[in-house]
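Attaching the record inline, Q. Sequence:
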Amino acid sequence: MRVFANQPAVRRKKADLTLLVLVVLLLIVGLVLLYSTSTYNGRVKFHDETYYFKKQLFATLLGGVAMYLVAGIDYHVTARFAVPLYLCSLVLSTAVLFFGQEYNGSRRWLALGPLSFQPSEFAKVAVVIFLARMISESKKRTDSLWFMIRTMGALLPVVGLVGTNNLSTAIIILGIGVILIFVAHPRYLPFLGVGAAGIGFVGIFLSMESYRLERLAVWRNPEQYEKGFQTIQGLYAIGSGGIFGKGLGSSLQKLGFVPEAQNDMIFSIICEETGLLGAMLVMLIFGLLIWRLMVNAVHAPDLLGELICTGIMGHMAIQVILNIAVVTNTIPNTGITLPFISYGGTSVLFLMSEMGLALSVSRYHQWQAGTK
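Structure, as predicted:
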């Protein structure tokens, strides 16, 4: 196991309370905002205003148990299962192609009795653990081109499988890999080549299906396409919220104008109901959470812990930025959820498992011998 060059001593301490408080705060805010956003769709589709809220609350409680259990396990022990976890993500992602359930034109779910499961969410966690262990245990130089090719090559199978039906998650997984390589690599210049290769890969992937190219056209001129309706209504919601918003539960756009408002476009309803002030507060909490993950990465006792926290931080940052960029039509619509807030039981469960992993790393702190 590779450690920092100055070989600092390591002591065990309690898990990062600040990180835990931020996670709990996001969960509470998310549940409140989800309830406010989803009451109309719940009443219309299921004759129950609390339908989405109850399912999300159940997933949150289940995720809380998962977070507690993962946080109590030494992250070195968890990392021992990196390869089986990664192989399991490949198997599940393959199973979706043949046995997956289709919803809104996308085949992304596997049925487990009465419950549905989204393997792409599990793949994100598996990739963080797998790449963190792979890079930390690398006995060869991490500044070579071969290191970059080998690491990205190990990532491409799951990116290809997930990207077949879920391009947005494939982009997130690819982004996590690039961030981890960037942290481990001592030079910056090679990443220009990685960026060019990534753009080329995305370009080829987009051209393989006509509907992906159509998204680019809708993004440029949403008024000219029927599929641009959601984007336009989302922008209406953002603009009508003003500085202080219309108040919780007072959104008009969630009344069928923004389809499935509780999912990818929930940030637009947040802007409408809580205004610019509420949206900024939500982004501030996310910013603090990302900052805290960075702090834990810096103070991790070894490279494995540093990479795990960095991977989780990268996942969180990429997903939040992309979701807000999609809602504001800064980038084409890619179907990315807002972590901890958008409706999705599988997402909440594995996000909280990731937070448990970060809390596990935070229990071990780098310090200099002779200091208190």
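DSSP finds 13 helices and five strands in the chain. The CA atoms of residues 112 and 269 lie 32 Å apart.

More tomorrow.
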